[in-house]
Amino acid sequence: MNDDAMAPDTWARLSTLRALVADGRAELAVSRLRRLLHDEPNLGEGHALLASTLLSLHQPEEALRAADAAVQSAPDAAEGHHLRARILLQLGQAGPALAAAEAAVAREPLVPTYQRALMRAGFAANNLDAAQAGAVACARLAPEHPDGALGEAEVARRRGRLGRADGLITQLEASHPGHSGVRRLRLAIDADLVTAPKQGFFARIAARFRRSS
What is the reported pTM? Predict the structure, then answer.
């Protein structure tokens, strides 16, 4: 069920609950959501909101049950699959998280948040093809944010393509100076450049210079 097909009173109740969550009253929202879902057990949006709210309350196991219910109630809706990916990642279940992230992207490929989850799940599952796909899509859909380019640089680093990784991180240092993720990845790339057996003398010197500056 989507908002357009929802009964007006149900839509109003769900909107009120979303407002409660936004106002920081998550525990009250959870209590009222459970009552709403008792009345309407097939309300996919309600299960999804419950899952995201429970996750914000650091209850990932309960959140996963709600996300599972969201997917069961509305299997064609991307949000439930995306929530499952986020929760499974938090629970350390990288393989199932990747499958859930892929399901979300398959349903709504133009949402940067879903592509970002695909990238992160790909890294967690050591599936660099999936991580690369999510990173490229992130960079295309949200070029103002560094996450996509950071992901591409990390993929290049893990694949041993240190020249490409170095070039990407250099661009990010110019566009996002001071970003903590950029700084961390720069340190990792420089460490790899120093220890890479086939790096030339000048590349190693340049890496050492960056680390000391």
Answer: 0.85
